[in-house]
Write a structure and sequence with these properties.
globular; transcription; Arc Repressor Mutant, subunit A; mainly alpha; 11% strand; 5 helices
Length: 123
């Protein structure tokens, strides 16, 4: 399946499913969170890779391209040797950050109970 295109067969004209699927995949929210928490205006690829050590180079590249395609981040290439590429959050994602931060806060508040429930169900 093409990671960048998910369609709802019953409602092909509804963009909500596609938007949420791309934004809420395994890595996108983590990349957005990492770009936001860095406290910098921009981050380079290697910095992101160091901050998210369990993401492969290929998956980070795909995720960054998807986020750029949807207008959540900008990618600036500087014609230097070696080339320098910087990533930054856009105003569109800044308007979503309060909601992402609320979700993260909720997860932190409930993580212990969720982990306990998972253990109980596995028994």
């Amino acid at each position: 399946m093409d990671r960048t295109m998910i369609e709802d067969m019953m409602f092909p004209d509804c963009p909500i499913r596609n938007i949420l699927a791309r934004l809420c995949d395994k890595w996108s929210l983590l990349v957005i969170y990492t770009l936001n928490k860095a406290g910098k205006e921009v981050m380079r690829f290697k910095e992101l890779q160091r901050e998210i050590p369990d993401i492969s180079q290929k998956m980070l590249t795909v995720t960054l391209r998807t986020l750029e395609e949807d207008g959540y981040i900008t990618r600036t290439v500087y014609p230097e040797v070696p080339p320098r590429v910087e990533y930054a959050l856009t105003p569109r994602i800044h308007s979503l950050l309060p909601h992402i931060n609320a979700l993260i806060s909720w997860a932190l508040e409930n993580k212990d109970a969720i982990i306990e429930d998972r253990k109980r169900v596995k028994k």
